[in-house]
């Protein structure tokens, strides 16, 4: 009996764990068995490997072939084990030298004609291999760029089984035409910019405060006022991601099967449609759950346009990730936890037709229908929203000098202020575990950093019932961000006024 072993990676959520793939060939009736908790998709691996071998004129060993994946306790699924299984079998059969497999991790799916095909989750798998001390990885040629995003990885791309065999025999495998991506791509000329948003200076300011404090934001207003346009520009004013964060974002994309071998320090943006299923929003799938839209928004912005049109249970399901910053998905065999720490931006029309309360009123929706429409957005989700901003039609905004203003500031300039405000927060919140005002419970702010002058302002609306106790907390939270943006050590009375306006979605002063 002869034995050979090599390695692959199993993915638990974003985390890659090293798997040893061992093959032994013994005499007896020709048979191939797989042991070590493989799921159904891995049994198909056996058949794919056999077919691939014969298509490339490599003989599958006669006799009993046993393939063992260990540790057996780790659940294993997916088609990316093919390359490692094939290599171990070929080494056990003496087709390739066994020592060639020693320090290498192989990843990829074999097609029946012997090509090595791209697999989902390659980047986190390569990251896992490098972390476990295995820098040499063999990957499908189409994914070399993606694999090379992993710092320290020594990547070889192979197009087919024959090339893989050549590599394992120590022959040169041409890697031409695959440039190394070490730097994030330069921002595109003509990329979305806050300056594209015309006549909405007040809403741009609300977006700036939301970005600066990590506050969840609601944008209301009739169709065509630029709610989506503004929301899609929020990532352009958020602080850039660190390299580790950018890699994490690229790893999630890889797992979701939308990785393109690119990475960016720009926070991501994800905007699922209101008809999106629970699985596409939260993540799901039959075998290994895929990350959904909320994980693709990790460290960036999750934008729900026409939020009132989303199913109630879909909106309610956001509660867990909003609370914990991750989502736990469970399927019959596999479980996965994916990161989902995002800034939530909701947009909604005021009524089904969209024109309720708009000057020149074209709305014919019955009052109870308007009410029902707006009520869909109450409860746990709206409780998370610190800033509510109503956007007026541009025509009116342009006529009303109070709302026109400049409003044409470039993202880069706003981003600088946002960055400075974030730095103030990081300094103040050092040691608390919180990083932005948006994360700090309002009660903590009230007791730890009281702002006696400004608090008096809230008494009136509180007594009149136009502001709830929870609303007070939110106002204080936003006031701190306004103070951070203005360079104040603590919120002034004016900061509190501004926060109150942002909280209630009305222009300043009219709020009370
Ligand atoms: Zn209407």
TrEMBL record:
Against SUPFAM superfamilies, the record matches this protein to: P-loop containing nucleoside triphosphate hydrolases (SSF52540), Ribosomal protein S5 domain 2-like (SSF54211)
A Pfam family reported for this protein in Swiss-Prot or TrEMBL: ChlI
Please state every residue range assigned to the domain named AAA+ ATPase: 213-395
Transmembrane stretches, start-end: none
Q: Quote the Gene3D superfamilies the UniProt record gives.
A: 3.30.230.10, P-loop containing nucleotide triphosphate hydrolases
An example Gene Ontology molecular-function term: ATP binding
Tell me its family.
Answer: Belongs to the Mg-chelatase subunits D/I family. ComM subfamily.
NCBIfam families assigned: YifB family Mg chelatase-like AAA ATPase
- What is the official name of this protein in its record? Magnesium chelatase family protein
Q: Which organism is it from?
A: Propioniferax innocua
Phylogenetic placement of the source organism: Bacteria, Bacillati, Actinomycetota, Actinomycetes, Propionibacteriales
């Amino acid at each position: 009996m002869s034995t050979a072993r090599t390695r692959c990676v199993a993915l638990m959520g974003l985390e890659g764990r090293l798997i040893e793939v061992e093959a032994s060939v013994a005499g007896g009736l020709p048979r191939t068995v797989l042991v070590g908790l493989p799921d159904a998709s891995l049994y198909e691996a056996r058949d794919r490997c056999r077919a691939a071998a014969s298509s490339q004129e490599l003989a599958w060993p006669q006799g009993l072939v046993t393939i063992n994946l260990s540790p057996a306790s780790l659940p294993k699924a997916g088609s990316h084990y093919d390359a490692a299984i094939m290599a171990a079998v070929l080494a056990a059969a003496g087709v390739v030298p066994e020592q060639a497999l020693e320090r290498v991790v192989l990843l990829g799916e074999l097609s029946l004609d012997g090509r090595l095909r791209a697999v989902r989750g390659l980047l986190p798998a390569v990251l896992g291999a490098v972390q476990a001390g295995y820098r040499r990885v063999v990957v499908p040629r189409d994914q070399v760029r993606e694999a090379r995003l992993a710092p320290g990885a020594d990547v070889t791309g192979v197009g087919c089984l024959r090339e893989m065999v050549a590599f394992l025999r120590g022959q040169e495998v041409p890697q031409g035409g695959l440039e190394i991506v070490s730097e994030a791509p330069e921002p595109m000329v003509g990329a979305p910019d806050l300056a594209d948003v015309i006549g909405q200076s007040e809403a741009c300011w609300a977006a700036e405060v939301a970005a600066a404090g990590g506050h969840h934001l609601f944008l209301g207003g009739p169709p065509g006022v630029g709610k989506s346009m503004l929301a899609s520009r929020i990532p352009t004013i958020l602080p850039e991601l660190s390299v580790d964060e950018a890699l994490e974002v690229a790893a999630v994309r890889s797992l979701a099967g939308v990785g393109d071998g690119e990475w960016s320090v720009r926070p991501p943006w994800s905007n699922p449609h209101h008809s999106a299923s629970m699985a596409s929003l939260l993540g799901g799938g039959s075998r290994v759950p895929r990350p959904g839209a909320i994980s693709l928004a990790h460290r960036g912005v999750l934008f729900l346009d026409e939020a009132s049109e989303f199913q109630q249970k879909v909106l309610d399901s956001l509660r867990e990730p909003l609370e914990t910053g991750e989502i736990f998905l469970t399927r019959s065999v596999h479980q996965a936890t994916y990161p989902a720490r995002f800034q939530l931006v909701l947009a909604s029309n005021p009524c089904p037709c969209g024109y309720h309360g708009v000057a020149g009123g074209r709305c014919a929706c019955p009052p109870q229908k308007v009410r029902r429409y707006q009520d869909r957005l109450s409860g746990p989700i709206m409780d998370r929203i610190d800033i509510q901003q109503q956007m007026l039609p541009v025509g009116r905004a342009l006529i009303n000098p109070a709302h026109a203003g400049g409003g044409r500031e470039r993202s880069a300039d706003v981003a600088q202020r946002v960055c400075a405000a974030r730095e103030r927060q990081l300094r103040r919140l050092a040691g608390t575990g919180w990083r932005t005002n948006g994360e700090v419970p309002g009660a903590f702010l009230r007791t730890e950093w009281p702002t006696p002058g400004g608090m008096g302002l809230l008494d009136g609306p509180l007594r009149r019932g136009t502001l709830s106790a929870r609303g007070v907390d939110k106002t204080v939270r936003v006031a701190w961000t306004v103070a951070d943006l203005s360079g104040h050590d603590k919120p002034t009375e004016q900061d509190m006024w501004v926060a109150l306006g942002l909280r209630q979605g009305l222009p300043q002063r009219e709020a009370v």
